[in-house]
Specification:
The complex is a heterodimer. Chain A is built from five helices and 13 strands. By secondary structure, chain A is an alpha+beta fold. Chain A has a single domain, classed as D-amino Acid Aminotransferase, Chain A, domain 1 (2-Layer Sandwich), CATH 3.30.470.30. Chain A is globular and about 55 Å long. Chain B is α+β, with helices and mostly antiparallel strands. Among the domains of chain B are: 109 residues, Beta Barrel (Ku70, Chain: A, Domain 2), CATH 2.40.290.10; 34 residues, no CATH class. Chain B contains eight helices and eleven strands. In chain B, the strands form three sheets. A seven-stranded mixed barrel of chain B has the order 1-2-8-11-10-9-7. In chain B, strands 3-4 form a two-stranded antiparallel ribbon. Classes of the chains: A alpha+beta, B alpha+beta. At the A-B interface, strand 3, strand 7, helix 4, strand 9 and strand 10 of A face helix 4, helix 6, helix 7 and helix 8 of B.
């Protein structure tokens, strides 16, 4: 009967392409520099205090791959909402997982509570900073300038996930601003550079921000920031 | 201040400085009373003698020392007073040592801190001792009998007085040997060290104890106060869910403010808020990339299901 003619009785298109995203993404590692700087060839954004995480979306399923975290999807189930904000399938984002407090600020205590398995702790959020795959194709050979534009185009801002805001050129200005809101490091990505696994060289820099006046207490999370290799 | 808990004299060489001791710290915990669950009445701890099967008053108790199994000798208050030890009513200074050396050799393991208050006749000698300790950077290691035990202690100048900190005897300080502490085996890369140093530098500041407080105690007090008021304590408040967009807005505001404050000076070049577009992308549904270098990869043109 028909079962012999249709050995794979799957209702979806028979020519559905195989999954293409890699199981795991090899991270690019930022180079530490001593201080913020100005350079029109760089895109500056906060080094958000949270956990570095890749979000991989394929066939309507989202996977999180986070530093030193075995099952990030179970720890941050809410981030699954991100799928609805993506304009395409086969997408890999590089970004940061945060846990926000009631005032919308990243909170290290709540993040720790989350990591300890308390799923009621705070409100998780994801800030995307880079785009590695789009439409099932790697885009890592494109310049950051291009990847960034595509990222903004394909990730609609939502309540839990956004493409992080950043500024071209004025690193020291952004650093001054970040000092006032308690962020302690600046991320600088070279607009002309590719994404490469391993040490980033000049492609991605991390500069510390030392507040002019010591703040009464650290306002933003400082956690899991040391490389765990 | 509260009443002194000890009275005696600092002794060294031929010098005697009469002083009183006051507890320097108190425990900040919240005190609970033990109640009978059924009627919430205070329960009492009674001293019970199983031999006579009766409850006895405290006044009928004595101190006993078990010198052999089941055999006791009674030690009275008078016996304790008569212990032939110099330190019974004195703080006997054994040596003056460098602060660092004292720290290294166990002065960090403090049991309790006490303030000293000199009696009138000892004031001059007391402050002389204090100023010499301050100038030489030394700590006086001494012995004192407190609560029926001879204690090792350190004298340290503090504010307008001298602090007496009782220390643990060397044999009371536990060895680290049973712990797994492979410090020598850990390799730290330069980049890791640099990252850690930056982190430390970014949190550098003065230690302001006024800023520190027991948040657990405060949270617990809130729970208790709410119960007193007859309400159910609110679970850790969950109000309006916060949005990541608020954080982005805070970032934009801070950058705008920083730019404004810079504008006080000469002409400025503008920083383009490249990421600011994402907030608007929501409303303009799909914003197509334009320039040729921004052309989407082939797969992007395919309709997504």
């Amino acid at each position: 009967m028909s079962s012999e003619q249709l050995p794979l009785p799957v209702p979806s298109a028979p020519d559905e392409p195989p999954l293409r995203l890699p199981d795991r993404v090899a991270p690019m590692q930022a180079t530490l520099v001593d201080a913020p700087f100005d350079d029109a060839g760089y895109f500056f954004e906060p080094w958000w205090p949270g956990i570095r995480a890749f979000a991989l979306a394929e066939r309507g399923r989202l996977r999180l791959q986070a530093d030193g975290l075995a099952d990030a999807d179970a720890t941050f189930p809410e981030i699954g909402e991100l799928l609805g904000q993506l304009g395409e399938d086969g997408v890999a984002l590089d970004g940061t997982l945060l846990v926000l407090d009631d005032d919308g600020r990243p909170d290290s205590g709540l993040l720790r509570a989350r990591l300890d398995g308390n799923l009621d702790a705070g409100r998780p959020a994801y800030v995307a900073s880079d785009l590695l795959w789009a439409g099932g194709e790697p885009v890592t050979r494109r310049s950051f300038r291009v990847r960034r534009r595509w990222l903004e185009a394909l990730l609609t801002a939502g309540d839990r996930a956004v493409a992080g805001h950043g500024y071209v050129g004025d690193g020291t200005l952004v650093a001054e601003a970040l000092a006032t809101i308690g962020v302690d490091a600046l991320s600088a990505r070279q607009l002309s550079s590719r994404y490469r696994a391993g040490p980033a060289g000049a492609a991605w820099l991390r500069a510390p921000i030392i507040p002019a006046e010591p703040r009464p207490r650290p306002t933003l999370a400082l956690i899991l920031r040391l490389p765990l290799d | 201040m509260a009443r002194s808990m000890w009275r005696g004299a600092i002794q060294f060489g031929l010098v005697t400085i009469p002083v009183k001791l006051y507890l320097a710290t108190e425990s900040g915990g919240i005190g609970f009373n033990m109640l009978h669950k059924k009627d919430l009445s205070r329960i009492q701890m009674k001293i019970y003698c199983p031999e006579d099967d009766e409850v006895i008053p405290r006044s009928e108790t004595v101190r006993g020392y078990e010198w052999s199994k089941g055999k006791y000798v009674v030690v009275t208050e008078e016996d304790l007073e008569a212990v032939p030890l110099k330190t019974v009513r004195s703080i006997e200074i054994e040596a003056f040592v460098d602060e660092e050396e004292a720290e290294e050799k166990g002065a960090r393991f403090v049991k309790q801190a006490y303030y000293l208050e000199p009696d009138e006749i000892g004031r001059k000698a007391f402050y002389l001792l204090k100023s010499v300790l301050e100038e030489s950077g030394k700590v006086a290691i001494c012995k004192i009998v407190l609560k029926d035990r001879e204690q090792l202690a350190a004298l340290n100048p503090f504010s307008k007085t001298i602090l007496l900190q009782t220390l643990h005897w060397p044999d009371e300080i536990r060895s680290l040997e049973e712990l797994n502490l492979p410090e020598d085996e850990i390799e730290i890369k330069d980049s890791e060290r640099k990252m850690a140093e930056q982190l430390v530098a970014s949190m550098g500041g003065d230690f302001d104890p006024e800023q520190e407080h027991d948040e657990y105690r405060e949270a617990l007090m809130q729970v208790i106060e709410a119960k007193v008021a007859g309400q159910k304590p609110e679970p850790a408040k969950k109000t309006e869910p916060t949005k990541i967009g608020d954080l982005m807005a805070a970032l934009e505001a801070s950058v705008a403010a920083a730019r404004e404050s810079r504008r006080g000076g000469a002409a400025e070049k503008e920083a383009k808020p490249a990421g600011a577009k994402t907030a608007r992308a929501k409303r303009t549904t799909t914003r197509k990339a334009k320039a040729s270098e921004e052309e989407a990869p082939a797969a992007r043109r395919r309709k997504t299901a």
